[in-house]
Amino acid sequence: MNDTIAAIATPPGEGAVALIRVSGPGSFQVLDRVFSTRSKRNTEDRRSVFGTLSDADGMVDQVLSTRFRAPASFTGEDTVEITCHGGTLVTARILRLLFVSGCRPAMPGEFTRRAFENGKIDLTQAEAIMDLIRARTDQALRAASRQLEGQLGAKILDLRSHLLELVAHLEAWIDFPEEDIDPADSKCLQAGVCKVSASIRELLHTAHEGRILREGVRVAIVGKPNAGKSSLLNRLLGSNRAIVSPVAGTTRDTIEESIVLEGRLFHLIDTAGLRETADSVEREGVARAEMAISGADIVLHLVDGTDSPAGREWIPQSLEVANKCDLPDFQADERAIAVSSLTGEGMCELVARLVGRSQSPGVSGGESLLAINSRHQAHLEVALVNLQVVSDLLSTSAPLELTALELRSALDSIGRIVGSTSTEDILGEIFSRFCIGK
């Protein structure tokens, strides 16, 4: 962590400009070895200076360089940002020049990790940066922005502060009985534990919404052959993504596409028709359709609306849809939404129902300020179990040392969310998902 690192911070490929970031104790010295300018304000902080980067063969590129002195930088270290032309060869040559001048290549997420290590951000804010980069809907972007502002971190630190007060009071009373400390009243401890537990449950209630915002809603479109599943997929996407044919069994594999509907990200999965078949390839397609059903957030069961309602088979807990309502022999059924993949009739109602089913009860379409991810959820669930044990111990004559131990465990789990008691394994897992240069 004491090395000077460098990486391209913009996407690979050709562009008008590219940004190369350098961070570490030797950043300014590295820049001085390769950068020349006529500006008399070259060493001023946060001022972009025009000049040239040169190697032994001559000029590599004309660039703008900006210096950020520690600790007033993203990483908390001396940092240099070089804005150069965005060609793949020129950026590669600049990187190579920096490496031979005293830098090493940055690892994925190393800049953000250094920001965390130097106290510029907590772990929830570090994760929010990746959420911000990967956001594909306005709702996901707003949620990530709020987390980056520190709202989730502040909530977690508030929980940790309350637990710390309980632990400190209980352990002080245990360890220093000769001091004038108020006895640890079980009713007061119970009230404190209940308050923290209630706050944890509120956060856990946002886990589903958080996953939907980050990953999208998985919708499996299933039904018998020729019900119109591929046509429905194409209608929702507004393009001919899947092959449509009157021949039964045309779709042999799952087809996945993503779409934003009313601000929500959906992953639509078109599947093979559900039926018994002797064809080994089609059987594999049916097996994959069944796997898609088991892993879906919403199962959209499509039936042929021209079949008799008496002969239709329904899938429990699915969103039932009857296709081909544009045909004269269509037979409506109150259990199903009537749509036409050909004309688009009924699609507005179908989209509204999909969006409605994707939302958690009591959470309004991604507007929640605090939408936790799976890592947060795991630590909060462990803390909640610890606090339940504490509550049970307080209702008995169990030694207070055991109660203090469980409170400590809950405190540790809460702290791991923001990195107050982080381990190398946790940091490695989080930052390994980042791109090079971030």
Summed up:
The protein is α/β, with parallel strands linked by helices.
Protein architecture, described:
This protein has helices at residues 27-34, 88-100, 110-117, 123-134, 138-148, 151-175, 186-204, 207-215, 229-237, 280-295, 347-358, 374-394, 400-418, 424-431; strands at 5-8, 15-23, 35-36, 49-55, 58-68, 79-86, 104-105, 217-222, 255-261, 264-270, 298-304, 319-323, 337-338. Mean pLDDT is 86; it is low at 363-367. Helix 6 runs antiparallel to helix 7 (186-204). A seven-stranded mixed sheet has the order 3-4-5-6-2-1-7. Strands 9-10-8-11-12-13 form a six-stranded mixed sheet, sandwiched between helices. It contains 14 helices and 13 strands. The protein is an alpha/beta fold. It folds into three domains: 5-106, Probable tRNA modification gtpase trme, domain 1 (Gyrase A, domain 2, 2-Layer Sandwich), CATH 3.30.1360; 125-206 and 371-431, Up-down Bundle (Four Helix Bundle (Hemerythrin (Met), subunit A)), CATH 1.20.120; 219-358, Rossmann fold, CATH 3.40.50.300. It is flat and about 85 Å long. A hairpin with a 2-residue loop joins strand 4 and strand 5. 43% of the residues lie in helices and 18% in strands.
